[in-house]
Amino acid sequence: MKLDIRYPIGFLFLVVGAILTIFGAAGSDPSIYAAHSLGLNVNFWWGIVQIAFGALMVVLAKCGASKGDHEG
Amino acid sequence: MQSIIQLGKIDYLIVAIYFVFVLGIGWALRSTMKGSGDFLTSRRSIPGWVAGLAFLSANLGAQEVIGMAASGAKYGIMTSHFYWVGAIPAMVFLGVFMMPFYYGSKARSVPEYLKLRFDEKTRGFNALSFAVMTIFSSGISMYAMAKLMGILLHWSFESSIAISAAIVLVYIFLGGLTSAIYNEVLQFFMIVFGFAPLVFLGLKDVGGWSGLKEKLVGVSTSQGYAPGAWTQAWSHLGAPSQNPLGVEWFGMVMGLGFVLSFGYWCTDFLVVQRALAAKTMAAARRTPLIAAVPKMLFPFLVILPGMIAIALTYQASKGGTGGFMLPAKNGSYDYDLVIPYMLGHYFPTGMLGLGMTALMASFMSGMAGNVTAFNTVWTYDIYQSYLVKDRPDTHYLHVARWATVVGILLSIAAAYLANSFNNIMDVLQLVFAFVNAPLFATFLLGMFWKRATGHGAFWGLFIGTAAAAVHHGLTIPIGATSLVKGGWLGSVQHVYPSEMAQNFWTAIWAWTSCFVATIVISLATTSQKTDAQLRGLVWSLTPHSDKGETETPFWKRAAPLGAVVLLLTLILNIIFW
After folding, report:
1. What pLDDT is recorded for position B246?
2. 8 Å CB contact of A72 and B347
3. Do B456 and B378 lie in a common domain?
4. Can you give the residue range of the structural domain that contains B454?
5. Does B300 touch chain A (CB under 8 A)?
6. Could you tell me if A36 and A70 are in contact, meaning their C-beta atoms sit under 8 angstroms apart?
7. Which of A3, A12, A20 comes nearest B350 by C-beta?
8. What is the pTM for the complete model shown?
9. B328 — phi, psi (to 5°)?
10. Structure ipTM
11. B410 and B455 share a domain?
């Protein structure tokens, strides 16, 4: 049984997204956003986007596996 | 000296997590590598979308990312011609017209196709030059990464080389081509997620596209061009003196759009190998077409940061605030530092880790793509064909694994060579350009003219390569100071307005010479192949049912997909005219 690449992609972005979201929400000094990213908490918001993308990849992989879908 | 980029703990954590996944993919695939086919060709098992994204990523080494951003700063939106005139039409041509023969021939590599279609000597010529070229490309990628990491993070040259070589070696050694392809897909998403916020923040900062346009007026006029020269792709191509590229539209469309791009995208085994790994003929034909969709949007991801960086630099040089200055180098700016400066400027710690990971990922996939192409050509086209024939397949699996190790060791040697003798690398890249320029003429005639013979192909390639060298030896770009730039035959027949123009015309000469010589020599010789042998290799001798799409629904077929891709590209060209 071959590895479905959507799993590693999904998990990677779930993990990295979670780290950035948590760091952006709790761990970071707000002044870094003023200094770099025009005041936008880019860690938090882009972390959320990555979590959403990671989750989508995992869901797609699960659907593909249950349907026996090997279509490209 | 303070480094341009300071990584915090969280940034290193993100880099580390990425590499755990990269190595994990290799580890997860290790038990599926049972024969040389699994290791070198993925046994035609990859879904179309995966092959498509890998096809795109294999070309997306860091030289591409760094180089296109640099060109965006130097030439503006005109850099998009490398995508919208260069890459896309060639990718569509590959998927619609050429893939049926590559995939249908069951060849395991591009040189092997040449053997089936023409003869042994044409294959040998292509296999040898390609093998040498991949080693040097991989070495140059490694060298560029080590240099950049030295400037950005103060890593030593030795440790950058050792780390990148070790990671690439492990994941290819374990999982072969499949591992390389999977990691290329991962890298594709990494680049998109790492760079998209950079473009978003940069554009927001300069006031959107209209704000950027306004700011770039000063950049254009201060260098003596029309106000829109940085933001209009076609309007200033009437004469070489009107645009920073120094080319006119005919040389650009023929040289870049036709000869160079078709030569690269349609004949380079590095990219074609990804499509050959696709699971069906229809998926293989879709591979370059799927790749074309993100490819046409990539200018926004890699060229725009360069345009934003030069606008900010210009603003700062005029005493404005809020921007940054690219460092100077040889009397102009060090454009290769566009991406690192943009990352350091707009990304706080956290996102910075993601951006740096994307950059490292692209360096490594540039290496990995070359190494997987090298070990296939070495094992099948050189070792199995000329050195040790007729052994059991497990023997060739071992050879392929060791070719990976040797390939990486040779790349390291090439990286050190590049570090000590920069000129040697310039000369080598020039020689490769000569060898590559005529290739597309050989494939075009081979696939669409059944009368083309082996002798015609071989000598056509030889003459085309020689024509490229002679043209380069007799011409120089304006202001050339070194013989590497041309004129080394002692007399200068023509002075080009720019190096780019000279490159394009060298390619046009090489292609035309090869095309004409192949036709003349083919007509004077007789073909060694019968029509039956050429079935599946030549257009007119291949029935439509062999092209693999009769069962495929209309919207998944190559021709309609290709038409849609071309239409979208045309619209982009018109928007940025």
Report:
1. 85
2. no
3. no
4. 433-542
5. no
6. no
7. A20
8. 0.93
9. -80, 155
10. 0.93
11. no
Q: Which residue of A has its CA nearest to B192?
A: A50
Q: Which residue has the tokens 């959507």?
A: A6
Count of CB atoms situated within 10 Å of the CB of B485: 18
Q: Is residue B427 part of a domain?
A: no
φ/ψ of residue B446, rounded to 5? -60, -40
Do B452 and B446 contact (CB within 8 A), yes or no? yes
B444 and B360 within one domain? no
Q: How many CA atoms lie within 13 A of B44 on its CB side?
A: 15
Per CB-CB distance under 8 Å, the chain A contacts of B32 are 2
pLDDT computed for residue A71 by the predictor: 44
What is the distance between the alpha carbons of residues B354 and B298, in angstroms, rounded to a whole number? Answer: 18
Distance of CA B16 to the CA centre of its chain: 27
Residues B404 and B444 in one domain: no
Q: Is residue B95 part of a domain?
A: yes
Query: Do the Cβ atoms of B306 and B98 come closer than 8 Å?
Result: no
If 0-12 CB within 10 Å is exposed, 13-18 middle and 19+ buried, where does residue B366 land?
buried
User: What distances in angstroms separate CA A57 from CA A8, A64, B22, one per listed residue?
Assistant: 9, 10, 17
B176 CB within 8 Å of a chain A CB: no
pLDDT in tens, B393-421: 999 999 999 999 999 999 999 999 988 87
Tracing tokens 């869901």 back to the chain, one arrives at A59
